[in-house]
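Hi everyone, sorry if this is the wrong subforum. Our group has a chain we'd like a structural model of before ordering constructs, and none of us has done structure prediction before. Sequence below.
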Amino acid sequence: MKSSLLALALLTAAFVQASAQETTQGQMCAAVAVTPPPSGNAPNRMLSDDAEVADRIVVAKKTIAPGQAMGHGQLVLNAGLLHHAAVEYRRSPTPPMVHTRMAEFFYVVDGEADLILGGTLTNPKCQNSSNLVGDGVEGGVTYHVKKGTYILVPENTVHYFTNIDKKQGMTVLDLHVPTPAADQF
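Answer:
Right subforum, don't worry. Here is the predicted structure as tokens:
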């Protein structure tokens, strides 16, 4: 029993120390008011198919404004207020980001780019209550991604796409995954 309590105390101390060492970037927006979820019942769209995704890609490409890096995401899946997947078309880089309350999953549908993961945002600014954007990244690892690549970006991880294919751009299926409490698995 004593050894179990000692082990629990050591684990708790290690967790507190690790939490204290985490980047403060995720804490920057803590004072920003949380945007309330939409009111009313969100429609559920829990199934889609390749034909619908292809149609949404056409819409995403048609609706991007001249000089705009990325068009509005085109919703393909939706479950309640917190879970959605969208098709995004990008023709040039968007600013580096950090999501403090969610992981993000990407599937590269078409095109290719370099993905920068990790590091620290330079000149971070709160975009809203749970997202930071920066002017650049210090550190981080570059990965070349192309059609068929799966990407999982944990919360509090800097990420952005750069060197996007100039001829065809890049299309991704993007899923934001809210962070569950530790005991939900």
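For your construct planning: Residues 28-184 form a domain with the Jelly Rolls fold (CATH 2.60.120.370). The mean pLDDT is 82.
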